[in-house]
Amino acid sequence: MISNIKLGTQRIDGELRETISASLLKLLTEDWGGPKNPMAQNYYRQVVIPELLNCLEINLHTLLSPVFSDILAKKLNTQFGFPPTFATGLAGDIIASVGEDTSSLPQADLYEPWERLFRMLSIGEAPVTIAERTAFAQEYVELIRKNYRQFIKLITEHGQKSFESFAQTEFIECDEQLLHFMYKFWQRFEDPHYLERLKAEDIAYQMGLNMEPTEILASLVVIHDFEGQVDKNQLLELLKYGNSRQGKKLELLTGCLPLQDYSYQDVEYFVERMLSGGYINIDYSGKITLATKSAQLVGAMLAPRLVSSVLENIMPGNKNINEAYSILQDLNAHVVEKVIERLARTGSPEVIEVLQMLPQKQNKRIYLKIIWACGEIGAATALDFIIDAMQHRDAMIRARACFAMGSIGDASGYFALMRRLDDDVPAVKEQALIGIGKLCVRSALKKIESIANDLNEDIHVRHIAREVLEQIKSTESKD
């Protein structure tokens, strides 16, 4: 039985904070010969020491990592202007001083600071946000991001086998140790769900949860399966026991109990943290729902299984469109979007029939995603659906439908696209022009020329009209 789901954290406050502050001031002014005039002392007390205390507290669990020592030296150099050699020695003394002032420091994984940094870069956090959350110097975070992007570019262009030939001169301040870490980190993405695991790790870190990423992901899947059906107390029973007094049964849908090894109080703490962090919500009726960021995370996990189930029911010889639709109809909208994306990639025309059954009027995002999928698949069976969407009152839907019609490339959509050249919204006209350009119909030249020469027309529309004119004419000359 796991006794506590809370992640144990050590804080620098009270007397300990005063002790470490005094030690830092002594290091800066006496041991390392810094200026002792009142202005310098005031700068150390009000700027440097508070920022160092924040950095040390956030990273207290990795203070003994040599990687963190290097990161702290970079902070002293880039953020406070200490010379590089001076900063390296000072960083080591700061860490040693904190170790003396605290009762004990945990043994740190060598690469844990980089693990956190690369995790946040991978899930799309901005350097300024990463710097705020880690207390690393923003210049250092941006440097790492630039090196990692260069690494991915090189390994994409030259292949994995060329890694050993990468020269450190192709990177900025990147030693062999960091280069090898980037390579090992990049290799982990061979697991198709590694990004979701990183996001779950970040949830655990931000929410202070002593949990495995798989436990968090499994719990979110449970919440998805029962979204809008259970209240908070029922959810606690589902996560802990697999059923609720109201008769909702978990094992029928998931076959697992993600938090059965935790105490009821720990499960309650997990749910409270997920609510306070905005990962799950309580709707107007008191039922639990997934927040957008959690639904997108779950969607990436569930999509492969759901896509397989849909495809099994729409293939010739085993066609059951209603069954395929039933798989999608009760899913969270963000999960449906992920499924639609994957279904579109299959290129199967049979997909279109089941997608058109989804309730487009209830969710604009799903409607737009279905239109996009029809264009990606490019099947003529979607023409009527797309032509209908091109007449929708919403300009965004009309524009997306025009783009999809061009992607389908069927001449039957020519007249529908021509009608949209008189649309009141420039964005719709632009997409209609692009669609006509893909069809390369000569009879459209006169209308397109009039748009290109109309000084009252939107400048972007005129620009695209000229490009489409050249496109159609150049295609004709080749023929």
UniProtKB/TrEMBL annotation:
InterPro entries: ARM-like (IPR011989), ARM-type_fold (IPR016024)
Protein's UniProt name: HEAT repeat domain-containing protein
